[in-house]
Amino acid sequence: MRKKIVAFTAIRSEYDLLSALYKLLNEDPDIELKMIVSGTHLSKTYGYSIKDIESDGLEILARIETLIDSDSRASRIKSGAILLHNSIDIVAHFNPNLIIYAGDREEVIIASLIGGYLEIPTMHFFGGDHVKDSHIDNPVRHATSKLSTIHMVSHNDHAQRLVLMGELEDRVYNIGSIALDKFINEPIQSKSEIRKYFEINHGLDNFAVVIFHPIPKERGLSADIFENILLSLKERGIYAFVSYPNIDPGNREIIKIIDKYQNDVNFLFYRNQPRNIFISIYKNAAFIIGNSSSGVLESASIPIPAINVGYRQTGRLSNENVLFVNGEIDSIVSAIDKVQSKEFEKIIQNVKNIYGDGHSSEKALNIIKNIDFNSLLFKDEDILENASR
Length: 389
Prior knowledge:
Layout (H helix, E strand, L loop, with lengths): L2 E7 L2 H6 L1 H9 L3 E8 L11 H6 L3 E6 L10 H20 L3 E5 L3 H13 L3 E4 L11 H11 L2 E4 L2 H9 L7 E3 L6 H5 L5 H8 L8 E5 L10 H14 L3 E5 L7 H10 L6 E4 L4 H10 L2 E4 L2 H5 L8 E4 L12 E4 L3 H11 L2 H9 L9 H11 L12 H5 L2
Parallel strand pairs: 1-2, 1-4, 2-3, 4-5, 5-6, 6-7, 8-9, 8-11, 9-10, 11-12, 12-13
Helix pairs in contact: 2-16, 4-5, 5-6, 10-11, 10-14
């Protein structure tokens, strides 16, 4: 009997985290994988990345339009409410053997709630991680872990944090970061091919990738920090591929800065790119700069330097190739100079990613195929009892 699996996805960055696993699940004759697609995947404003899911050949169980076109603090939780209301009956009717989801945004806690109330086993990827940036994603991640049946974590520290939260050790699997697998699996375009793809007339000898998102702790400052990143790159004559921000409150102010520099020859702004193009840009870049988790967790696998600007991602375990700086231009320029120095080249040559080796999807597939999830469904562990063992 084929094992039926539903995966929830609402944004390109989170979809790509599990893309290698989705491919393995979709190709396995013993598994029937279906996707519930929502959020920015269905928004042309944010790149309409559902086309990437379709091009990967995955079967979509439901397309649920949830994105509230607003820059307010209420918009994300409203989007979550829409997803909850519209996906319960869909999941119940399909009646999967397992629900899987990744990360720390509203769709994961919605998926974990649905699994809990419908008595369907759930699997959470990237639990146990922790960031000291006061963002709502952090408690959402931990709350989702408490609601989930089983956990796929990226580092031993994350596993230990879940155990201290009361999760049983035999439900926690350290498989490394599954996000790293795409760097091994995706074919890479050369700099000349990238230049041709984007119709860039000048050379790409030295360029950066910029990914920057707003957070509440920097409310009113995010746009200024983002502009300081652009100005610092321009001052050093470094071309940059610049991503649009995510849907968190404050994104409109960042988009205004993008509009301001839209015609600047130093920058190429994009909403979404095919996976192989994005990975090609990333692997050919001199460094990544901004505040994306990718810089902290993934850049060491290439390896390239990463400059994290501002509060976002602070407190997260990081590799030696990552620099944390404030949002002032002098601080950013100094960091750019440092990561392009001969001394930093030596660090890059010797860095080894603490989050894994890029072969996590095979480990996850083996666990999914061989565990009796129903035997683990009902969680009755007690934190006090676990602590006394």
